[in-house]
Design a protein that fits this description.
single chain, alpha/beta, 15 strands, globular
Length: 339
Amino acid sequence: MSAALPTSSREWHLVARPHGWPKAEDFALREAPVTAPAEGRILVRNRYFSVDPYMRGRMNDVKSYTPPFKLDHPMDGGAVGEVVASNAEGFAVGDHVLHGLGWREYADVPAERAVKVDASLAPLSAYLGVLGMTGLTAYAGLFEVASFKEGDAVFVSGAAGAVGSQVGQLARIKGASRVIGSAGSDEKVKLLVEEYGFDAAFNYKNGPVAEQLREAAPDGIDVYFDNVGGEHLEAAISSFNVHGRATICGMIAQYNATEPAPAPRNLALLIGKRLRLQGMLVADHAALQGKFVQEVAGWLASGELKYRETVVEGIENGFDAFLGLLRGENTGKMIVSLG
């Protein structure tokens, strides 16, 4: 066990189900008491927590692959922090751990739900992004779900985000013939080409996606990594070569929509082109974790793989960070730092 513990912790609660875009009054930052951990549990002072697009879906009361957030309870999500009290074998005060109880300052975590991380391998925040769930999503989605092979031309939407930026770089490192990305600002487009080594990139706000993609990939594409859905998916279907594969990872363009999205209108092309569109959840690919960390840590160390984070300081700005993420204000992983 440890010395004096704090008596209270601030945590974000969902207090109303958002309709369309989330509003500040749908959330509340509340104080909760902190107690010493029971047997088999550890108390963690969170240093960083993650805000992710999938969390928007959990704010709706609908049956899904992961249960919805409960009203008037703390929300959860990826977090990394320091053990300040331990009542569990194998965890000592001072250990750094990754766990799933974010959106709060202190987390009382069952020991079996925490994973030790090495702060000497990479900064702690990297375990929420490039070496964490978003990194594994990119790795598994490209190599396992999309069956990427050397020589493939790869298109990534949401390419300046945490997942997309890593997908494009992994494709480049593994021998893609061409890597194309789309993003929502000219600044992000420049970053994709100059820093991440994409062969071409475009701002989807500058004109129809299908036209810009045709220009960026005159010989077509073999793999599409979809973080956006909607118009981007329709454009990819048009640009696919025969036997193209799409990993459907996210559809951020329609997460806050109150009307059904106009579906891709060209799905008939799937037949002649023999296309494969496959949805993915990172939880299905936990077996890749060891290989993923080993390979990606090596590429980070060699400088072949670069990453960016957008860090918002202070738990009181947690909701603003989440809303900023949905609006595309982040470059790379969006993280809240608790100092």
